[in-house]
Amino acid sequence: QKEVEQNSGPLSVPEGAIASLNCTYSDRVSQSFFWYRQYSGKSPELIMSIYSNGDKEDGRFTAQLNKASQYVSLLIRDSQPSDSATYLCAVNLENTGFQKLVFGTGTRLLVSP
Amino acid sequence: EPEVTQTPSHQVTQMGQEVILRCVPISNHLYFYWYRQILGQKVEFLVSFYNNEISEKSEIFDDQFSVERPDGSNFTLKIRSTKLEDSAMYFCASNGRVSADTQYFGPGTRLTVL
Q: What is the pLDDT of residue B97?
């Protein structure tokens, strides 16, 4: 069973702080990794994608990937109350050449004003 | 900005009835997917579709489920005989010419089976 694990939270941070979200995955052949944000009752919205080891920055967001440790994280700098949502880690299993995203259960982030 | 659309936004049906959920993927995308999310649970892969055929399906996607691309724009998910446990949000997703591209999700259809 190929799994993606996340702490369900909630992770509570004050406005302006850095929020750190973590994810581990079990399948070593995974090639691409995604962070989606999901507001309650809404669909997943892409935040970041990352394909190679290291850091990738986009505005206030930084994704970090360590394939040896099978670990991917998302840092949100200068957290805002509007960042309060569930953050889903998704891993793409590309064994067949086609995508099959496996999602974690998500980490609920609460940013207090 | 192009987006995936889904209809209806909410479907209520009686157990045993057939439902068809509709999706219009982003126009130049070639890979299409259905996922579902039972309330309070994780998003689960159902099926992927490329070149007018299923490329992969999960164990959830049994004989009660089928997908179709009836024309150049729509992508449908049919559940032949709904069960109570089919109640969930169903998300359609698509991605572009390269299979490793990011998947973009539609707003979802909330299916309620009574």
A: 63
**What CA–CA distance (Å, rounded) separates B66 from B52?**
12
DSSP A17: S
Task: Give backbone dihedrals phi and psi of A68, rounded to 5 degrees, phi first.
Answer: -65, -40
Confidence of residue B107 (pLDDT cuts 50, 70, 90): very high
Name the minimum distance, in Å, from the CA of B42 to any CA of chain A.
Answer: 5
Give Cα A6 to chain centroid, integer Å: 9
Q: From B41, which residue of chain A is nearest by alpha-carbon distance? A: A105
Contact: B44, A103; criterion CB under 8 Å = yes
- Reported as a pLDDT band with limits 50, 70 and 90, residue B13 is very high
> Rounded to an integer, what distance in angstroms lies between the CA atom of residue A111 and that of residue B111?
31
| Cβ–Cβ below 8 Å for A42 and B102 | no
* Over residues A71-81, mean pLDDT: 97
Which of B33, B91, B99 is facing A97, going by the closest CB pair? B99
Q: pLDDT tens digits, residue range A19-52? A: 999 999 988 777 789 999 999 999 999 999 998 9
- Measured CA to CA, the distance from residue B49 to residue B36 in angstroms comes to 15
Rounded Cα distance between B111 and B87, Å, is 5
* Interface touch A99/B106, C-beta < 8 Å: no
A79: tokens are: 């957290």
